[in-house]
Amino acid sequence: MNEEILKLTNSLLSDVEFLITRFEQTKVTGKQGDFHSEVKPFADAMKIKVEEWQDKAVLWLIQHPQRTLHSQQIESTAENLEMVSTQAFFPSTSRKRFIDTTRSINYVLKCLKEGVEG
To answer: Which of 6, 33, 38, 47 falls between 20 and 30 A from 89, CA-CA?
Structure first.
């Protein structure tokens, strides 16, 4: 199970980096992504990955309690991941909120990764 969580966590970290890059590109060009060919397929794939990660991460936390990480943070991070997976494609998205949310996501993902790696 640890390998699966690490693989999903690393994949989500990469996805967040992609989303940050995509967000910056969207802000510069002012053009939003095409909903049917870009936004929806990416968001749907993220939703599946995030749900799998959330289930495994919460189960892992129950079995291996951490001082700096709790199941509520996993749930909030899952919600935030789904939210930014669409927001990155729209130039009207608030830069401050997007950056703050992705920082929070990265913090939780990295804390989980460190905990699983031991």
So the answer is: 6
CATH number at residue 90: 1.20.120.440
Torsional sign, CA 85, 80, 9, 114: positive
Q: Is the pTM of this model over 0.70?
A: yes
87 burial (CB, 10 Å; 0-12 / 13-18 / 19+) is buried
pLDDT per position as a tens digit, 15-58:
999 999 999 999 999 999 999 999 999 999 999 999 999 999 99
**Main-chain phi, psi angles of 78, to 5 degrees:** -60, -45
